[in-house]
Amino acid sequence: MKHKNDFGEMIDAGDDISCADLERLTHELFRHLYLKNRSSNQTQGKVLKILYKKGSLSQKEVQEILDVKPGSISEIITKLEKRELVIRVQDPEDKRRVLLELTEKGRQDVEEFSRNYQNSVMKFFEVLDEDERQEFGRILVKLLEQGEERKDACADGKRK
């Protein structure tokens, strides 16, 4: 399958690829792998994954992990409750505190999404042989490390 560059020209795996082409291709890769498989609301999906991995948490703890406003997390939790994916339960150790828990339906939703996502990723990358997958992984790590260095420099008030 060929892809268009910023000028509407078709690019192929054998072509010289510009940085702009790489940006567009990276965006397409992300869209194909992630957005195609995501649930209807990305933040709701994050809440479900957090509760799946960490177990019962207070609304405030989930809010802090996601770094969202209190009003936003309340709305998200209410929507998840209406879909019967999350319930509020009293903390057995502190009766004043309310915890969020996944329902069985919520647990199944996370597991199904994970299975579908993993299958999609495996299918997507099966076009690469083992050496190509390893090289692609090394390139991604290198790019991410550079991104972290730039982020750290910006936090220190420096630019690279």
Report on the structure:
The protein has 160 residues and is α+β, with helices and mostly antiparallel strands. It has helices at residues 19-35, 42-54, 59-66, 70-82, 104-125, 130-155; strands at 3-4, 10-11, 57-58, 86-91, 94-102. The strands form two sheets. A three-stranded antiparallel β-sheet has the order 3-5-4. A two-stranded antiparallel ribbon has the order 1-2. Helix 2 crosses helix 5 (104-125) and helix 3 packs across helix 4. The mean pLDDT is 81.
Specify the biggest β-sheet.
3 strands, antiparallel
Distance between the termini: 36 Å
Strand order of the largest sheet: 3-5-4
Count of extended strands: 5
Give me the number of helical elements. 6
Question: What fraction strand?
Answer: 5-15%
**How much is the average pLDDT?**
81
In terms of quaternary structure, the protein is single chain
Helix content: 55-70%
**Helix-strand pattern:** EEHHEHHEEHH
Low-confidence stretches: none
Structural class call reads alpha+beta
Radius of gyration based on Cα positions: 21 Å
- Specify the overall morphology: elongated
Would you spell out the secondary-structure blueprint of this structure?
Layout: E1 3-4, E2 10-11, H1 19-35, H2 42-54, E3 57-58, H3 59-66, H4 70-82, E4 86-91, E5 94-102, H5 104-125, H6 130-155
Antiparallel strand pairs: 1-2, 3-5, 4-5
Helix pairs in contact: 2-5, 3-4
Distinctive features:
160 residues; elongated; 3-stranded antiparallel sheet; two-stranded antiparallel ribbon; alpha+beta; 6 helices
